[in-house]
Please model this.
Amino acid sequence: MITPLDISKLDIGALQSELEDRGVKYCIGAYVDIHGIPKAKVVPIAHISNMAKGSERYTGYALDGLGQAPNEDELTSMPDFSRMIQLPWEPKIAWIPSDNHFKGKPYPLNTRVALQLQLDEAAKMGYGMNLGIECEVYLLKQDEQGKLSVPDAEDKLIKPCYDVRGFTNSFEWLDKVASAINDLGWDLYSFDHEDANGQFEFDFQYADALTTCDRLTFFRFMAKHFAREQGLLATMMPKPFADKTGNGAHFNMSLYDLENGKNLFACDPKDDPNGIGLTPLGYNFIAGVLRHGRALCAVFAPTVNSYKRLVRRGAMSTFSWAPVFNSWGSNNRTNSVRVPAGGGRCESRNADGAVNPYLAATLVLAAGLEGIRENLDPGKPNEDNLYAISDEERQARGIEFLPHTLQDAVAAFAADPLVEKVLGKGLRDEFIRYKTEEWEGYHLSVSKWEIDRYSYMF
Model:
């Protein structure tokens, strides 16, 4: 076990000595591109003091979404040592979440920087944000042609959710991931076989929003590493199989009082007119999220593949569990925003495994804060099966569909004035450009489905 390092009382010299004593030889200052994919240079431990001053320089034009031209000065990365991780499988390497800076200032097109700026806005109102993200992930094998399949031949139940045999058959990988989560101090409280063959979920304790986003970024990296050790692929791709459930990354959110840490969304259900244990502040937050729900979908579900998950059934024989409506309710999984049993938080269910958590957390927090500032009301909770109601009933309740495609989502994102207000024109435009190119690249490709359907028909 590699115990987490408390650096609160360490200067950079003492930190270097402590890391050397722990066997660290190299430091990875990992920042993310617009997709949430970590990028870094690797610095030998002897140069950590220079790294701490932003010595590592990067050509922004070589990276997706950082908005630089080839002639511009380089970006630097500034490490956040307070959230450092010593790799559980390779203790010679320390992973350090980092922010991009430009000419000595935080670079606003870096999504981790954008989240911190929005957290500063919440702090002006006296709030901090807690966030828990449910990590759904497939463990698969991939053949030489790229085809994905479930490696466990016995994992073939029609309804495999919570299946014990399917869980224990993949125990080697599950145990490595679970043990690492606990060794890192994240407090894993549950993990299980999920609703699809080869799919699993890990749930660790919530934390402040920045910490949780750092952890999800590292979790994806770690899960893939342990799978690769077994010749397998771990993926949080939103929808690897058309006939199976997709990978969600549900955002569980609440605000807390910065002075005393109190959860400001939690109350006794008897004090809530709806009886679900949510304060007026929590309802305001949900109303803000719903006001911007279609635009938020672009960052919660940011790929072409995401919208093959956000369907009622699609190619599946049962309901998908994924949301298709911009709606809210209590413990009802057919809404995009749910208040789980016990109250005290709200859950956005359209977030999927491809999410850039920093970008999504930035915008959903901004939307929720707008709901609080304007005292918005989300209306009555939807408690029935929304998959089954008629269009007439849906329209009578004023329930909109979420976007059906990435193209629809990007259009909603581009049309929402909150996006530019929060992200700035630069980051907003970069996201629109990259996601428009992604949609067009997909739309211009010719799939096997098209060939199978049309080549003999016409």
Observations:
- Residues 135-242 form a domain with the Creatine Kinase; Chain A, domain 2 fold (CATH 3.30.590.10).
- The chain has three domains: 12-101, 135-242, 248-458.
- The first helix runs from residue 12 to 21.
